[in-house]
Specification:
Blueprint: E1 2-11, H1 15-24, E2 31-34, H2 40-46, E3 60-69, E4 75-77, E5 80-82, H3 84-99, E6 109-115, H4 119-122, E7 130-132, E8 135-138, E9 152-155, H5 168-180, E10 186-190, H6 196-203, E11 208-213, H7 217-228, E12 236-240, H8 247-253, E13 258-264, H9 267-280, E14 281-293, H10 297-306, E15 310-317, E16 320-326
Parallel strand pairs: 8-9, 10-11, 10-13, 11-12, 13-14
Antiparallel strand pairs: 1-3, 1-6, 2-3, 3-4, 4-5, 7-8, 14-16, 15-16
Amino acid sequence: MKWMKFRIKTLVEAEDLIISELYDRGLEGAQIEDKVPLSPLEKERMFVDIPPETEADDGVAYLSFFVEEREDGSLDLDGETADKESVLARIEEALLEVRDFMEIGEGAVTVSETEDIDWINNWKQYFHQFYIDDLLVIPSWEEVKPEDCGKKILHIDPGTAFGTGMHETTRLCIGQIKKYVTGETELLDVGTGSGILSILALMYGAKHAVGTDLDPCAVEAVAQNKEANGIADAAFDLLIGNLITEKEIRDKVGNGCYDIVTANILADVLVPLTPVAADCLKPGGVYITSGIIEAKEETVRQAVEAAGLTVLEVNHLGEWVSVTARKPETVLGEEREPERV
């Protein structure tokens, strides 16, 4: 099997945003090369052999994306037929998007070919079980240790496209969900991905969850993770579509139905999403956001307040921010009963 490799030279601080922008354009499974020193905890969790010495961090990072090359020379880009030029155009578009609000360095792209690599599964050797506070997160290819039996355990198999809970943005959301969830919680998770936030909310006592996502791949990922964690089908419903722009999805989700709405999405999506999320909340409901870089914190805060919500908390972890807000208990002119189609 042949693969075309697209390698981008950028800066360490731009890694996450470039990866997110390219994921939205069909490029997944980034290979990251940089000289950022690993923490002792990262070494313990992610690697078997760590070189005793590494070069000094120069701030430069290389991101590589692999696209399958078919026998006729065309490329298979997330199920679509593409060629080298069209993939390069998507990459350049993403880099321009990120350049609008942060430095990305050189931004040079090189293209090469490689054969017979299992790049989709190679990352599994670096992902091992870990704790988030009292929660053990464990992938499907590892077994629960005897000493961990009886603890709260999340079985997660994210594949190449979705989160595991290790990233700061997910951890910020998890902390807020645990704080606000109750036994009566109806939760809406926008951009649910692997379903991790909805599944965790149900594990911590939520009554029911609805997830939405743009990517049809979420269907299989969510189904696998629900089964792995013993989540009943009726407890977690998934809708594929755009909550912001598609009336059919908004009608199915419903207005005034949810005690908590979560959205772990980039700030540029949170801004148009927030007034929609506010409509979905019950009076007194809580809106939990993450995926926000520090430079965009004020932008999201303003969008939240413009939607009539009151900011409760702003939390930071690494370079990422979470904004949590509440809908007023009584909303002027809102007399109707909550309903969902």
